[in-house]
Give the backbone structure.
Amino acid sequence: MKDTYRHQGLRQQLVNVLIDKGIKDQNVLKAIGKIPRHLFMDSSFLDHAYQDKAFPIAADQTISQPYTVAFQSELLQIKRGDKILEIGTGSGYQTAVLCELGARVYSIERQHELFKITSRFLPKLGYRAKKFIFGDGYIGLEEEAPYDGIIVTAGAPYVPKALLKQLKVGARLVIPVGDNVQTMTMFTRKGPKEFEQEEFGEFRFVPLLEDKN
C-alpha cells in the first residue's frame, strides 16, 4: 500500500493529460491527482496505472479510463454533501473520486467477487461509502431515493426507468447507453415526468448486467 513520490509525479502528469483533453472541473482534477490509482490495480499493471487507459481487474471487469471517470464526474456537477447513487462499484476507483468530491455515496455491485474485494479495500484507503450493496443496478436503490445524482459505470443497452424515478427534480443521471459502443448520455429531471436528454459522444464500457452474480 505504498504511494511514492514517483506515483505522485505520474498522477500529476495524468492530470495534465486530462486538462489537455478538456476536463475543467478543478475539484475533479484535484481528486484524480490525489487518489493512488495504482493501488486499485493488479501489481503487474503498476507501470500502466497512470496512463489514460482502461485496464482489466477481477471478474472480467475493467477499471475505467481516467478520462472517462473525470468526464462522468464533471457532468454530475457534485456539490459537497450530495447524495449520489453509483451503479457498478467495480474496483472502487470511481467511488473514491465521488468521496473526494464530498459526495455521500451509495454504490451497487452485482459481481460478488468484486463486491467482497472492494468493500473491504476502500475503507483501508479512508474512503467510506454510506452503503455498499451487492445487488442489481438496473433496479437502483429505492429505499434511499431520491438522489442528487446517479452515475452508471457500465454500458447499458437501455436506460432503466427505475433509475430515472429515483432522481430528485433538478438532478442528473449520467449513463453510457448502447451495446458494443455506448453514447454517454445525461438525463436531467425537470419535473415529475419531465426529463431533458443530452448526448456527449461515444465511449466503450463493459456491459451493465442484470441480476446478481
The longest strand covers residues 167-177.
